[in-house]
Amino acid sequence: MGNFAANEGLSIFVILVWLGINVFLFVHFYLAFLVERYYYTRVILGHALSWARAPAACLNFNCMLILLPVCRNLLSFLRGSIQYCSRTAARQLDRNLTFHKLVAYMIALHTAIHIIAHLFNFERFMDSQLMINSSYLPYVLSQIGNNDNRSYLNPIRTNETNPTIVMFTTIAGLTGVVITLALILIITSSMEVIRRSYFEVFWFTHHLFIVFFIGLVLHGVGRIVRGQTIESVKVHKPDECHSRFEDWGKNGTDCPEPVFAGNPPMTWKWVVGPMILYVCERLVRFYRSQQKVVITKVVMHPSKTLELQMKKKGFKMEVGQYVFIKCPSISQLEWHPFTLTSAPEEDHLSVHIRIVGDWTQALYTACGGDKTVVQDAWTLPKVAVDGPFGTASEDVFRYEVVMLVGAGIGVTPFASVLKSVWYKHVQENKNVFTKKIYFYWLCPETQAFEWFADLLQSLERQMMEKDMSDFLSYNIYLTRWKDAEAAHFRVQYEAEDDPITGLKQKTRYGKPNWDNEFSAIATQHPGSKVGVFLCGPTALATALGKQCISHTESGTEFIFNKENF
After folding, report:
1. Beta strands in 189-275, from DSSP E residues, in sequence order
2. Which of 62, 96, 167, 483 is 20 to 30 A removed from 90 (C-alpha atoms)?
3. Which residues, 6 or more positions from 167, have their beta carbon under 8 angstroms from its beta carbon?
């Protein structure tokens, strides 16, 4: 329970608070439309009125939140400020995209409820106009305001129309359709399979959020949902006058004709703050993207991995951070995130890019990756860099014992970490709090090891020279191999250096037994807080998260951190 509380306690608390606010808003606004002022509106619409208004309030709240988790500069600032007070609180900011998705799902849910309720409402508004019967209260209410149009209850002003026409000729109906279409496109294009395979589709459709928010702010301007004015309720009590509707407004009656008015639009009050923050965020990004970036070196590594080394004036970073890169010659609009593989101690910034999609393939070609001759510097494409932005890996050196787990290209954040470790020990930095690093790299093919092997060999040699070989324990796993490769590995296994990586430490085959690994580390470091850092797939994150919770040997506490960008 202690490990569970340390890893998930604050996250669960935040989620429960968020859910609690949603429940409170739903119940509060549901009941708010059951009051006397909306008595006559309910005569026409029934409880569908409350079922439409309650999710609308929740939509306002969640639309206020949806932009905040993607204000990356704001999150980086908060992360840097909070982590000095509470490392646990700072870790919650690393789950920004998870919260962003949860809020999006909640928006989708309340949108569906809101739409269904209003479909019933429009049908009932239409029915009350079509039921021509002066002794039928909904019809009488629908005729109020037909002459002077100063006060009306039913937004459908004639029986010579239909709900579909009203939907496309009113502000509320038209903006509602636009909002719904934008939301459907945004959510469907955010599915994992589309985001991974067609990133450009995800990127461009996600910018429909601009249309969504404009429509959202304008949606309530038409004031379709109406109720009695407060002044009218004082002189016309619905519970007393509703049965005497035939005498409304006549001389000698104490029931004047009720006066109705729509509620002023409220959505803008909820979303204006986050919208201003997001605009400021984009302005900061635009300013930084205009700063000059020079590509100083391009390296094509095996397994189609492109390394770009760049320089940018005033650029400062921490280990494990990431940047967004744009190549205007490929696309003026597309920005793609990449983890920095350089260390803060180096005089340049570098990224390793795996060639897996149209944009990365175009960048590979633009940088001359498909050519055998050396490219002149002036032929290299111009790029823009936005960032850096904070991630979980920034906290690596705040733990005495650290587990780094990378899968495939997911090793890139730890390249920065391990380089920084190397520099700190070369410079004999005595302020390094971390005493032990366990590094695990799971890779499906031998070629992928090659670009990272040089760094590991340097680290291995440096640690041995300084008699610190116990500081870094690295475990490299090859998860897939061919029969021919297996035969070669078997022959070469007795060699002093590993046949794949050239390291003293031999490559292992298959996948780690995480239960054994965690138990061994817990036994080796009793009473310690162990930071577990992962950059890899969701399935591996789930497995490691469970291990962090279940292992409590010797009072050891495992704190799980995952890269999200």
Report:
1. 226-228, 260-262
2. 62
3. 122, 173, 174, 176, 177
Among 448, 404, 405, 412, residue whose Cα is nearest residue 320: 412
- Cβ–Cβ < 8 Å for 108, 100: no
Strand, coil or helix: 159: coil
Q: Could you write out the DSSP letters of every residue in 122-150?
A: HHHHHHHHH---TT-HHHHHHHTTTTT-S
CA 213 and chain centroid, separation: 17
For residue 17, what are its two tokens? 């608070």
Please list, in sequence order, all residues whose beta carbon lies within 8 angstroms of the beta carbon of residue 3, skipping any fewer than 6 positions away: 548, 549, 550, 551, 552, 557, 558
Question: What tokens does 24 get?
Answer: 């409170």
What are the pLDDT digits (tens) for 173-218? Answer: 899 999 999 999 999 988 888 887 777 788 889 889 999 999 999 9
CB of 123 within 8 A of CB of 134? no
3-state DSSP assignment of residue 387 = strand
Quick check: 440 and 411 in contact, CB under 8 A? no
One-letter amino acid of 72: R
- Omega within 30 of 0 (cis) for the link into 388: yes
Q: Among 72-81, 93-102, 366-375, 431-440, name the one with the lowest average pLDDT.
A: 366-375
489-531 pLDDT, tens digit per residue, is 555 555 555 555 555 566 677 788 888 888 888 888 888 888 8
Note whether 409 and 352 are within 8 A (CB). yes
CA distance 373 to 378: 15
**Helix H or strand E segment including 512:** none
Spatial neighbors of 79 by CB under 8 A, at least 6 apart, are: 90, 93, 94, 390, 394
Question: Which helix (H) or strand (E) covers residue 415, if one does?
Answer: helix 412-426
Q: Could you tell me which residues come within 8 angstroms of residue 381 by beta carbon, excluding any fewer than 6 positions away?
A: 295, 327, 328, 329, 330, 363, 366, 367
